[in-house]
Amino acid sequence: MRNLLCLAVAAGLVWSAAPAGADLLLSESFDYPAGPLVTVSGGLWTHHSGSVTGEVLVANGAAVLNQTLSEDVNRLLDGAPHTSATLSEPLYAAFRLRMTALPTESAGGYFAHFKDAGTTFRARVWATTNGASPGTYRLGLSSVSGTAAEVIYPLDLAPDRSYVVVTRLSLSNSVASLWIDPLVEGDALVATPANGSGFTAAAYALRQANGIGAPVIDDLRVGTNFSDVLAAPIPPPVFSLQPLSQVVDEGGTVTLTGLATGAEPLFYQWRFEGVDLPGATNSALTLSGVTTNQAGTYVLRAANAGGAVSSQPAVLTVNPAPAPAADVVSVVVYNVKGNGVSDWSTNSTQVRAIGRQLAYLHPDVIAFNEIPSNYTWEMTNFVTAFLPGYYLATNSGTDGYIRSVVASRHPIVFSKSWLDGTSLQPFGFNGFFTRDLFQARVAVPGFARELDVFVTHLKATTSSPQSDANKRGAEAAAISNFLVTVYLPTNGLRPCLLAGDLNEDVFRPETSRYESRQPVQTLVSSPTGLRLTTPVNPFTGADFTLSIQATLNVRFDYVLPNGLLFSNLFSSQVFRTDLLNPRPATLLSNDSRTASDHLPVLAVFHNPYDTPFRLSSVTASNTTLRLTWGTRVGRQYRVEASTNALAWTSVSSNLTATTTQLSWSTPVVGPQRMFRVQRVPLP
Predict the structure, then answer these.
(1) Whole-prediction pTM value?
(2) Following CA atoms 416, 420, 422, 424 in sequence, which dihedral angle do they give, to the nearest 10 degrees?
(3) How far is Cα 157 from Cα 163, in angstroms, rounded to an integer?
(4) Which segments within 362-444 are labelled E, that is strand?
(5) Rounded to the nearest 5 degrees, what angle is found at the Cα of 396, between the Cα atoms of 462 and 444?
(6) If you average pLDDT over residues 10-18, what whole number do you get?
């Protein structure tokens, strides 16, 4: 009810009708459209101090105080100003409070208070973690002090739960009192000491500042009577239908459903593995074209003015589709220039250009360099947008700015950081390995052994060219030493490759700036078993990969396969979009230039396993029979003999191929025999 101050002259007498007792002086439900409170309230709320760049916002019919910049807003009380001379009762204020993020400082800060016509405040309500149990907060109260709460209400409060907060202010001596969820005025309270000064109340104010957490305020009332301002507590929602765990085949469709009851309006939010799913704000969640990446735990959150609750977890199990045997495996290495980038979302122009190229190439494995460390989590969204169903390995070491990442169409069964921060002193440089050697093991269908993909990013040439070249050479030596002494002794027969930005052109080192320590030659030296490949652009015939954004005149990006893969190299290229003719509709001509200064390099390998083999020669003399057949490096064979083609006996086993040809000899003695060669299945 709005009170009016009326003046009249009758029979020479001046009189005023002051506000009657038990009247509301302010009733604010915040039922405005979403947006800045000062704007959407049509001027009912105004600024009085602080920044206006971090506006107090209205969302879902409540005031949200979550901006990092300070802003103070207030709304005038009806009939203001009010003093102890115009009101015989103290003033009361009540509101619903839900804290969506805990205060970040122990002392906290104040966020609600009475205000006079200037900048004097009383009955400040504070949010603090001082004295609260972990994961909770408390409310405090001050009447005069603006630097600390004078009293703390001794009750731990839970985030995301709604509480009714009531304050009382004596206008004659500024004593302030605080209740939480009271039923009557006689319930437990805390009060500030009297300071002997009166106060003239003109408005009620909200304040946001660093340290207060994220209060959400609704149903604000100011009046002269306790019972008038007190609103009945709203209970949080209750789930009447819990979502159930389900099993779905990869590529299928599944719907998870939950239902809550409680005071309207109700708001829903689905979460996957503890993270909100964008746009999933209905009680039912339908997933189509399900991938194995979507297997996991789903929880439905329901909220109203009384607080928020979570459903029981629902576990989604995704049965993977049978993977067809791979005739080839394709690998892309791509330095995506993420160093210093502030936006790595799928809305970024750069990220979208990267995504369009990789969606077009659709390689089986992608070795990324220069993923920004602070935005590694965005790679999950990248895969969802451009490479749905792909697996990710992101646990590489980092220099604090960038890291390497591997994405794969096929399952990544293992990944590990190997050389992050390793001392380079044993390799002639006083320093440490900066950007890691990262391994991801990929289960390629049809491959008898998993494929090991190693990714590295050697030291770039910057302000100290010779020192940088020395460090680059030492990093290459460290990788070679790791391969020879750690990896190959137990994995020598496994297909593997090393990919990455090696920051030196093997054919054209910058000899005018430094003496090369030959890092690429070190990596492809005989002990490592790695081989140099030289992909070129099919339109220019050039192997340059840097810089498509300036002068394209050096090759820094490499795919170095081991002998098993090298002998099965099918094709390779340096990819760029501006020369494609005709250009696919899904690509833009300048995508390569927009995406990075590096060009992606693609290599395609035949499956080195499970291909037919045949005898290439059979020779016999009076004393010796010799069989020779085509092999795959690393495969084992056995030779069996029979006199009747029915019963066969092994005469030689564990014959391991080290080249593409294998021979076996036996003396020609005894009765006539037949021989056959069998390939031993790999475990």
Answers:
(1) 0.48
(2) 120
(3) 8
(4) 365-372, 391-393, 402-408, 412-417, 437-442
(5) 120
(6) 27
